[in-house]
């Protein structure tokens, strides 16, 4: 039987993050990936090679959704970067038209190419319109602070408190990722299912933030859920895969500091 997973996310032109990383991760885990593109992120030579962000027209997003869901029976979806309130509106309407077994939300707020004020609008729209669909949400420390209202997240106890607060917003499962942001030797994530906390911890691979790690992690959770695994097992597989991917990128001396290239090829 072919397992299918769906992703609604943005393109990150170097292939390290975004829908490219999502689809590669699905493939790596033996799941057929179907994708709907929400925005295009590239580098802007006019702006110190910072991010250039272009949203896809809402109607085109709706059309892609219709094509994907009328062709395949999709009931597990990952939501990555949406980017604007208008995109969030159309994705929320589309999600409401189907029944989902799992909706994995990676609450990417904005990328560097957007005005800082855009994060607030996007945050409000995500909370109001997409969060109610999420069965699993995977915030990093920055996103967890915004969603939980906590000023600081600096310890495993803080990750736990953030997970509990975010759980109260509605998702069935919350994974708060400490990553390199949490001080200490380990990359720690906590999963809260409303009753129990499970801690996933590995020694940090370097100290730098790795672009694409969050996309790969949430995509791996999604792929494992599409295979019928439970959330705790899916997070365990995702943690192992993302750690190996970061190790591979570091040891392969990828040409770009913050983007892992060829993570799965060594
Ligand atoms: N340097 C690292 N070494 C090991 N694991 C890491 C490292 N950086 C991030 N991770 C892990 O990768 C996953 C994605 O985390 P993170 O990078 O915080 O997400 P995001 O890309 O959303 O900021 C988490 O499981 C996190 O703990
Ligand atoms: C389209 C897109 N999606 C997602 C992300 C977030 O990537 P991650 O959190 O995995 O580093 C980025 C970051 O640049 C992006 O450009």
What can you tell me about this protein's structure?
By secondary structure, the protein is an alpha/beta fold. The chain contains eight helices and nine strands. It has helices spanning 18-28, 58-71, 85-96, 118-130, 141-148, 156-167, 213-226, 231-251; strands at residues 4-12, 32-44, 50-55, 76-79, 102-105, 136-137, 173-177, 186-192, 197-203. It has a nine-stranded mixed sheet with strand order 3-2-1-4-5-6-7-8-9, sandwiched between helices. Helix 1 (18-28) links the parallel strand 1 and strand 2. It starts with a strand and ends in a 15-residue tail after the last helix. Mean pLDDT is 90; it is low at 251-266. It binds adenosine-5'-diphosphate and pyridoxal-5'-phosphate (PLP). Pyridoxal-5'-phosphate (PLP) binds next to strand 1 and helix 7. GO terms for molecular function: hydroxymethylpyrimidine kinase activity; phosphomethylpyrimidine kinase activity. Residues 14-251 form the Pyridoxamine kinase/Phosphomethylpyrimidine kinase domain. It is an enzyme of class 2 (transferase).
